[in-house]
Design goal:
The chain has helices spanning about 5, 165-170, 175-180, 185-195, 200-210, 215-240, 245-255, 350-355; strands at about 15-20, 25-30, 45-50, 60-70, 75-80, 85-90, 95-100, 100-110, 115-120, 130-135, 140-145, 150-155, 260-270, 275-285, 290-300, 305-315, 320-325, 330-335, 340-345, 365. With about 375 residues, the chain is of the alpha+beta class. It is elongated and about 80 Å long.
Length: about 375
């Protein structure tokens, strides 16, 4: 006999029977309430293992997040990862509870339209939820031969927090587990990421805190110290990028870098098409310490970066175009080198405003051999 059956009670009056699926009440012999309790469904379900690779290719297993339940309807997310790069996932879903052990998940695309319906069943002991595709175009949410068919073991009632949900479900790191359970740490991590710091650096921090007796305190201190160091470095960068440099050096460098530059290369796109792209830059003198520049850079799949304006010679040894953007301060640095010119975008704001998804200024540039006056 199931737990629900053991909890069943019949009224002694004989006219009205009351069966309790705590805390749900169904009235038999009179008005029947079809509403189901979400308490047995809400929570984190799934198990993920991590291996080598990048992105979905490093994960195996799946996760199911069920939350914000009301009147038998919950919000949900579901992800599954299989061999190779195959995976399925959605950021929008609605779970409708049909009975204590059965539910229906409706997945929606970016436009809010229904594309896939999954049949979900919860085991009687509450240890897992299984999903099967039942209707719709579920392949819309999948890459490769991925499928939503999976079983998700119960993990916990309280929702995980933070940006690395897969890492929370993998739970291979004590430091990661601490972040997943603490909103303050999750917010610190998000602030840390917004400073454009590398995930490799974060992984080193987490590995160090895994060995600490108090991993949560260790992570908190590590994030705060790292953020403070970055903010100090940014303040120093701003001073160097906005303080005028030596006018004599500026005049000599302008004479050296003025001209037109071209660099052609083989490019391609996601369809496999091959074509040639040409990066270009023009630098003109305005004064002994300033230039006007115009640059166009090309990247894979037709993405590009474009910028033009006035740049002043600053104490950091580069010509800096400083503009205020909606996202923050853009400092595009045009840096003369022994072999040519390179670009730097220390705050990352110039890239956001001026580049496609695959584009960026850092690491790009031109050599003096690509200066058109050198090749008439």
């Amino acid at each position: 006999m199931s737990r629900h059956e053991k909890n069943s009670q019949l009224s002694r009056g004989g006219k009205l029977s009351v069966i309790r699926w705590a805390p749900v009440v169904l009235l038999v012999g009179g008005l029947v309430s079809a509403q189901q309790s979400p308490s047995e469904w809400a929570g984190e379900w799934g198990q993920i293992t991590e291996g080598p690779g990048i992105g979905p290719a490093k994960h195996r297993g799946g996760r199911l997040d069920i939350s914000e339940c009301s009147d038998g309807v919950c919000k949900m997310q579901i992800f599954t990862f299989s061999d190779g790069p195959a995976y399925c996932g959605t950021s929008k879903g609605r779970l409708t509870i049909k009975s204590p052990l059965l539910a229906e998940a409706t997945l929606r695309d970016a436009f809010g339209k229904s594309q896939c319906v999954l049949a979900l069943s919860r085991s009687r002991d509450g240890s897992a939820i299984s999903a099967t595709e039942s209707a719709g175009v579920c392949s819309y949410f999948c890459s490769g031969p991925g499928s939503f068919h999976s079983t998700f073991p119960f993990r916990q009632k309280t929702p995980f927090v933070g940006f690395d949900m897969e890492g929370c479900f993998a739970a291979s790191s004590r430091a990661r587990a601490a972040i997943c359970a603490d909103n303050e740490l999750a917010n610190l991590e998000q602030q840390w990421i917004s400073e454009n710091l590398s995930l490799d650096q974060e992984n080193e921090m987490l590995r160090a805190c895994d060995e600490n007796e108090q991993p949560a305190d260790c992570v908190r201190k590590a994030f705060r110290n790292s953020i403070a160091e970055v903010e100090q470095a940014k303040r120093s960068m701003v001073v160097e990028a906005t303080t005028p440099g030596d006018p004599g050096k500026a005049d000599a460098l302008i004479e050296k870098i003025t001209g037109e530059y071209r660099a052609s290369f083989e490019n391609s796109d996601v369809s496999g098409a091959k074509f040639r792209s040409t990066d270009s830059m023009t630098i003109e003198r305005i004064s002994k310490t300033s230039i006007h520049y115009s640059v166009e850079l090309n990247f894979y799949n037709g993405h590009s970066c474009g910028s033009s304006g006035v740049a002043e010679y600053e104490r950091n040894g580069s010509f800096v175009s400083h503009t205020q953007r909606p996202e923050g301060e853009c400092y595009l640095e045009i840096i003369p080198t022994e072999k040519g010119i390179s670009f730097a975008d220390p705050t990352g704001i110039c890239r956001i405003e001026s580049c496609g998804v695959r584009g960026g200024f850092d690491g790009k540039g031109f050599t003096f051999a690509q200066k058109q006056s050198a090749h008439p």
